Amino acid sequence: WKKAFNHKVQQRVLDLQQRRMAQVRHQKEEEEKMNRRFPVDLLANEWFNENKLTVEARIYLLDKLLPTLIPGMEKLLREVESRDVLDAKEGTPSQFDPIHFLGQYLMRNNPQFDCGSQSSPYVRGLRQVLEKLKTEVLDIEENRLAKLKAEVKEKREQREHMQEIMAQVEETRKQALLHQFREWSPDTNGRIQLALIQSALRSFLQNDSPALALYDRELEPTDTLGQTVNSREFAEYVYSYVKSLHPEIFQEFLHHISQCSNAFLKAVRQDMWRQMFSDLFLACDHGQIGLLDRHRVLALLENFYDSNLEPVRATLCNPRQWPIIELDELDHTDFWVDFEDEERAATVTEDSDKPITPQDQSKAVSLTTKSLVTSGEVQPEASVTKKDVLVSEEKNRACNHQEVDGPEKARVYEPMLEIRIEETSTKHESAANEEERSVLGTVEEQQDGPVTTAVPKSEEDNPVLEDAAGEKLNRSYFIKKSTCYSSLWDQNFFSMITSIQQSLFLFLVKNPGQFLNDRPLGQAISFSLHNPPPPNAYSQIKTVKMLLCSSFPVVQESLSSILPTQSVWAAHVNIEFYITSSSIMSMPWTPHSIISHYPATPHERKKLKKKKKKGLKIGDLRSSGQGGRCSSTEDVMTQEEWSVAASRFTDLRSIISDIQSRGNSRLTSAFDGNSLNLPQFVQLLDTFVGEGASPSTVENLIEYLQSGYMETEEEKIERLTKACQAAIAAQHKLVLDALFETWDNDSAGFLELDEVETALLKYKEGMEKEILDKARERITSSHRYGTGGPGLTRKEFRSYIEWIVSELPGEKEEVFDNVVEFLTSSIKRSFTERARGSSRRKWLHKIRRAAETSGVNMDPVYKAVFQVLYKDAEAHGNNKKISCSIALLERNLQDPKRGDTCLRYTGCTAEDAPYLLNKVLYRDMKGVSFASIDEGKPVHVPRVRHHGNIHFWNPSRLEEDLKGSFLAVPLKDSQQRVYGILGVDTLREQVERNIFLMHEISFYQGVSEMFSIAYRHVQIRKNILRLVTSAMSWIHNRAPNITSASTYLMEPAVRKEAGYVLRKMMTTDNNTGVSEIHPSPITLRRADNIFRDYLFKCADNSKVITADAYGKRRIAVPLRDPSGRALGVIDVSTGCCRELPAHEFKDLQKMLKMLQAACHEMLQESSGQVEKTMVLEAEQFDEEKRVGILFQRFMLQDLRDCVQKLGLQSFAELKSYKDPPVMVHNILKAVLLLFNPEWAESEEIDSWNQCKLKVTSDLIRRVSCFDPTASSVRVHAELLAQYIKGIPRGAVWKHGSIPAEYLYNWAFLCYSLLEHKGGVQNESRSSSPSANPNPTLAKSEEK
């Protein structure tokens, strides 16, 4: 009834409200009609003025009296006029009383009772004046509503005005964005790709601008479907993000968009060039190996660089300098003293202003021909006479002085093909050979020049191969190309020759016993074609084809479409082709591996240039620098190779598939000093041409490299052999890993050697026992077994099996297959066991994945470990309730009497956190953890209640609740040293029998091993950041043009096909020298950061890259692991300075070289490959302090070596000064005070004559072995700073003194180490054992 009543009342109220609103609406309509019929009388405005003294009286009169009195007075006057009262004679009494009439009117028209009477225009005017007085003049409490209405009106007007302004601003900004759209060079349809816009928007937030830009809406995921937008859609899409930006920030945004458009246009041009470089790589890779000789490519680049004129060289990168060559390939003394750089730079600047003369062009062309011979890339044959060389030079000279019109005038390098076909034989020349000689003789008579014949130098240079008849054939293969002008003909002919070679390869591989129709090729073909070609030139090529087809009938059909037509003959070309059947037969190639590749013709290159008009695809930008699968032959396997490995061993197929799914996607290339794969070759040439090279220079470079790159047959065979061996090794590694996981079903991380040996003793019924004994002796003599290792680790198992296979008799691949199949069949697992092992391997992989994607944070690792333990206890431990903890070993500095070391609990489960987290377990306390540490083995306590040596951290736990078990598993590093404990207990389980089974204990050992791997991974990344911090602090103030540096570390991407992402871990401001490690590092994905693609190219190729990004010059430097693969990237920014001064550039090179050396040593030590090297005394404190000075130690060692090489005679320059510069004197003072700090108060230190007497061989010896961190060194850093810190780095460089340069850098480094030493000592005095700064809330306790 309440609901019905409320509804009824509510309906009644609504009806009344509607009626009232209708009355008000009707009244307003009537008033409007009245106003239209009778306008307001303007005389009423006389009552309005702003005099606040009389406003209240006027309001009263206008509100209470005048609206009734004025009509009454009008009525009275009309009545008086109608009765002629005013015209009556005086003294005549009147019956009309105006006072009574007015009173009657007022009484009858009382406003309280008469509201429906129509008002006169004057009265309506009075009411308007009354409202105006109340709202504008009167200031009383009742006027608030009027004020509010006025404010609302004012705000509405302001809002309308702002909307007009915003509309104008919106139109202005959209017009600016439309102008920006035109700078992007849209395609023929007037559209650009949406992903470009999204990447530009995203990069603006990541820019180093001090203004924080916040978009109006959240950024969308980067488009991957190739969606495009036109100009209107571009403006609307971008404006939806930036409409609320501050004008200054919006101007920065427009500038940023303009920079992105410029970068896009440059990327279009670079992508065209990179595509041409990719085609060049395929053309030079004659053997389809996927690798080119790096040293040969560098030599060709040096020759090309030297033979060009100075203006062209100014646009190229010097191939003898960094970053083309590696820092390790430079002499380390050049980093410190190479004062000629500035002189050379000045010379280049002067020469670049000189005009190019025809003599310079002729000189450049002649240098090209000489460089091919003198560089060692092309060796002149012994049979070529001096006359032939002179004739060749004369021809080149004639070509050089030819007048060429149009674009051909700028071309210097065009390939001239010189090919010879010859095969010599020592026996069995038949009549058929004579016929061939006659044919060849006819050809030779038609030549204009002499016939050249290549004679092998010796039998060692040309190894022999026996055919089926026992005949020995000389092996040689030589293609020589030099320089001259040519046109389309040489490209087509080279394609023809390439096809002929590949057809011969196919035939001889398929038919190794049949060649030359049972007769040796045995003759030489040599001919020359000149411009214009002789009439019989075309017939000579036919002769070549006839001879080849007669010798190889099988390939006749494949050669029928190769011969070019006469229309393409228009060039000056020398042709010599030399090939032998024996060299082809010796190649271990399979038919399917030989793929024909034809060099791109000029017409095809024109097609590539049209890409700029059509617009570049984002896919091209993303894939540039990758070039498909890297050809580095390491542990990278294609899907096809995975399938081959799985098909060979069907019983291991499921595990091989698991390994494949767990493995990271390898999209990066490892640096190899001897070879280049496709992406590395493309990046090398991209760095060489830079951004200032002209298109003609790039085309000349491509033609020069294509004509000049050659490899001998021996080199090709060697590369193929290495590639095959690497592929076989990768497959063996995969199969043995799968075999290891098959045996280690519980994922303990090791196998018992006795079990494996027992199984192998049954192989061939124990006939190979002697080999197994040797293998056991070999494996047990290793260092790890000497330290009490638990068994065979995965790596040791691979080494053990591979060594046994190498010792067993028979063909190695067959022996390997037999051994693997035997060991696979030796162990049988039930379906339940296999399912348990598969799930446990996946869980363990999650721990490693958590470390790899943690951003150097241990919290995800702790959480992953405890989640894995929970899942296993639930799935494979009868759903028991467990608690877990992790304790790390540390030095006991707080209370040394209780033991040298203690355990600090850094992670535990949530239930035990109040009792266990951050607590310390000492050796004099109860517990079995230290017993596990000392023995290096797990300790299992089945009944903790009856053990008597268990420490219970929770004092509130009742004694009857202590029914569980406890397991302590040691945590070991790569050298099998224990550094912590993993504890697992079942005290929360109420079941009486809740002990751990053997498969659970084995799995917990695997968890501890995986945690150690994850912990080591995170610590390595942290140490890398410490090394970078030390390196940047060293270069601070030495290179002021370096503005900042960002450190990125690589992590696996969420999607495996995406490869990896970059995490921005640290930013260093070189102006202040402060490095900031980001607690939540930004993630950079390749698809989202198109305009930061140089970072991904650097990581892909493990090569240094220089680029412009957002108007600033960048140098991206890879941090490599010992295998040459990139771990991260250091992005060094030089701001607007495109080229660093010579001394800053050298300091940067020194810093990067020493940083990479320190990283290599740290990585090798952490992996257990090498023992730790302690050079300085400060390195013995602890690992963190050692990493902090590791960079300075490498720099100090390098300086020691440089000073030792100088000798005493080099210091004679310093002694020759009578009155030295103050800078030199201060440097020597600082050096002397390091050895004799007591001289600081004496007068000897201020006397130059006394100081230079101290420069002896003993000083050099002391400098070479001085340790500034030693406890015996008493000098303070403040004393040294008085003399060394105020000396500008550039002034020492400009002084040009080698001894002064060395001593300055040495003293400055000692000063840095002394500062570090003082900081360490102060910290050790005031330090106490601190807990983990971010202890993870997880679970467990040592009970």
From TrEMBL:
Keyword set includes Coiled coil: yes
Alphabetic keyword roster: Coiled coil
Stretches for region Disordered: 346-365, 611-634, 1321-1343
Domain of life where this protein originates: Eukaryota
Record's compositionally biased regions (Low complexity): 1322-1335
Keyword tRNA-binding: no
Cited PROSITE patterns: EF_HAND_2
Coiled coil regions, renumbered to chain: 123-175
Entry GO MF terms: calcium ion binding
Protein name: EF-hand calcium binding domain 5
Gene assigned in the entry: EFCAB5
